[in-house]
Amino acid sequence: MPNADGCSVLEVATPRTRWGTTIVAIHGDLHSMIVEQQEASETVDLAFDEQPFKIRIAKKDSHRGAASLLISKMYSWRGYESAPLRAHPNRLTLVASGTRQHVGTLSIGFDSPIGMLVDDLYKPEVDALRSSGARLCEAIKLAVDRKARSKRVLAAMFHIAVIYAYRVRRATDMLIEVNPRHVKYYENMFGFAQLGAERLNPRVDAPAVLLGVSLERFHGDIRAFGGKPPHTQTAKSLYPYFFPPDDEEGIVRRFPMLS
Questions:
Q1: Predicted TM-score of the model (pTM)
Q2: What is the pLDDT of residues 66-77, one digit of tens each?
Q3: pLDDT digits (tens, 9 = 90+) for 124-148
């Protein structure tokens, strides 16, 4: 894909790391990628602006340990408690890494007979969604290093999570528990709406509010505004930092190989 000057911003990169093979490379201000038909890998390689970073799927205990260390670091700074990430059959953990350190992590849990973490505090609200026919997932264990302060890291993790939840796992709604002071941020940035009243979350020893968003709406807004300059409708959202639709298709094609 050429950039505004007609130069290519796409480059194939396949370095081997302890996480696996890099399968997607993006260079320049535009998001472009190429997906290689290689053996199953755990890596999605992303570069934004002049600061490259990778988003990878944590499949091993060492990968989850790296994510847990970042979560512990960010949560303790805010006075929250956190438990280490463990292998889970209905959970996908993403880890964003810069050239020298891990800068972000986000896990997506999917509903099953054993339930989800949101059931601990909001089972009546969650059961009501189940009764309506919703196929649920939850965004949990979100942490972004304060030094990174990157909207692109956050947007990239959420976009990959939405792609996997909506297009691969066919979930219809995403839930998340957030601190009450962050409610407006998630409403403005992602379109979440409040579904449950404030309650004390013993897992982090802090108050929480249940939010939810239709993945059809979330995904539709991403495809409408992702990768485009912000305007009135998206000036205060993260949508312009999401991938454009063409790039999303490459990620979708990779997920079956990672399952």
A1: 0.78
A2: 777 777 766 665
A3: 999 999 999 999 999 998 887 776 6
135 alpha-carbon distance from chain centroid: 18
Domains of the chain: residue spans and CATH: 61-258 (3.40.630.30)
Contact between 15 and 38 under an 8 Å Cβ cutoff? The reply is no
Non-local (6+) Cβ contacts of 22 within 8 A are: 13, 14, 15, 41, 43, 45, 54
3-state secondary structure of 68: helix
List Cβ neighbours of 50 (8 Å cut-off, separation of 6 or more): none
Contact yes or no for 136/172 (Cβ under 8 A): yes
User: In the chain, where do the E strands start and end?
Assistant: 16-17, 20-21, 43-48, 51-57, 91-97, 102-110, 136-144, 173-178, 193-201, 206-214
Angle at 83 between CA 82 and CA 85, to 5 degrees: 120
